[in-house]
Design goal:
single chain; alpha/beta; Aspartate Aminotransferase, domain 1; Aspartate Aminotransferase, domain 2; 2 domains; 4-stranded mixed sheet; globular; PyrdxlP-dep_Trfase_small; Aspartate aminotransferase family protein; transaminase activity; Class-III_PLP-dep_AT; pyridoxal phosphate
């Protein structure tokens, strides 16, 4: 049976990983500066992560949410402590899309309204409401398009005010640092005004932290760079270091009711063990400090390279923008220099999303390779 052919694939077959490196089926080593869409937060095969997951699966990998699971409580307590989101409630699921789907559903339950406001170049997932709030018509099927969504320009506070004052908007959902869309950010003034407008118009303010959360921005959540308190915070990717896990943090003013949300696999024992291991390593290794220091180091070098026209993002969620499309550049980095990087809907942007454990020597390796590739006349001519 053939696989459903929906992914354009590089001709590389990783079979193992360690730290910031992966190794293919031929034994070749690759520097991973993309982490599978920012999923690898504490490094491939981190020993404490491997130990925690192995120990848990040897005892109990799964049972349903019909029973007590103390690991969920422990994960919620650790997350509250490290994130600073005091008194929020945690609902666990399996992915970022599912997290955003539940966030939007909960907002609709809470407000009794159905329309959503989202923003251009935003990406929130591929499930029904989440994909309708995503600014990409190519991945929105007719069944998704039935959702009531208004997409505005980022930083368009006049547009947000006009839409919210119509009285039918249940939620505003925003990435504080856009991922797939190309690392654009709203201003603090914009976010703070949106937050105030949501409060004034019985609208839930949803922070999509699926990619920007878990220390990647230099704070635990990217919204913490601004003076706002989201009603709902969606999380996933770096949460499990590769194990499928997601969730939403829910403001204490939102009351739970039996049956309001649910999931079969979400919050299973194995997922919680993975999630706890990630939080433990983040704290023990002081990875937030490493993110801040490595980001400063990376940006300082990037500023010396004239072909880089703009440096976007925060922390270790970074983008390098050129005046040419970067598809060939990425291929040369992976095939000639064995370095994984990422792309975006902005075809001129190279995305850098390494494990939070990345060091200066790895950044040096990247820039040495990048400078070498940029010296290639074929890449330079491609911009013309």
């Amino acid at each position: 049976m053939p696989l459903f052919n929906v992914y354009p694939l590089y001709d590389v077959t990783p079979v193992s990983g360690k730290g910031v490196y992966v190794y293919d089926d031929q034994g070749a080593e690759y520097l991973d500066l993309y982490g599978g869409h920012a999923v690898i937060s504490i490094g491939h095969a981190h020993p404490k992560y491997v130990e925690a997951v192995s120990n848990q699966v040897s005892k109990l990998g799964f049972y349903s949410n019909a029973i007590q699971n103390p690991l969920q409580v422990k994960l919620a307590d650790r997350l509250e402590k490290l994130s600073g989101c005091k008194d929020y409630q945690l609902f666990l699921c399996n992915s970022g899309a599912e997290a955003n789907e539940n966030a939007l559903k909960l907002a609709s339950f809470k407000t009794g309204k159905s329309r959503v406001v989202a923003f251009k170049n935003g990406f929130h997932g591929r499930t029904s409401a989440a994909v309708a709030a995503t600014d990409n018509p190519n991945i929105i099927a007719p069944i998704n398009a039935q959702q009531e969504v208004t997409i505005l320009d980022l930083n368009d506070i006049t547009g947000v005010k006009a839409e919210l004052e119509k009285g039918d908007v249940c939620a505003v959902i925003v990435e504080f640092i856009q991922g797939v869309g190309g690392l654009d950010q709203g201003t603090s003034d914009f976010f703070e005004q949106v937050y105030a407008l949501c409060k004034a118009n019985n609208t839930m303010f949803i922070a999509d932290e699926v990619q920007s959360g878990y220390v990647r921005s230099g704070k635990f959540f990217a919204f913490q760079h601004h003076n706002v308190t989201p009603d709902i915070i969606s999380i996933a990717k770096g949460m499990g270091n590769g194990f499928p896990i997601g969730g939403i943090l829910i403001h204490p003013e939102i009351e739970a009711k039996f049956g309001m949300l649910g999931t079969t696999f979400g919050g299973n024992h194995l997922a919680c063990a993975a999630g706890l291991a990630v939080l433990n390593v983040i704290e023990e290794k002081q990875l937030m400090n490493n993110v801040i220091n490595m980001s400063e180091y990376f940006i300082k070098i990037a500023q010396t390279i004239p072909q880089i026209k703009k440096i976007k993002g925060r922390g270790l969620m970074l983008g390098l923008e050129f005046d040419f499309e970067v598809g060939d550049l990425r291929k040369k980095l992976i095939y000639e220099h064995h370095i994984f990087t990422g792309g975006a809907s902005n075809k001129k942007l190279l995305r850098i999303l390494p494990p939070l454990t990345v060091r200066k020597e790895h950044i040096n390796m990247f820039f040495e390779a990048l400078i070498g590739v940029l010296a290639n006349s074929e890449i330079v001519e491609a911009k013309v």
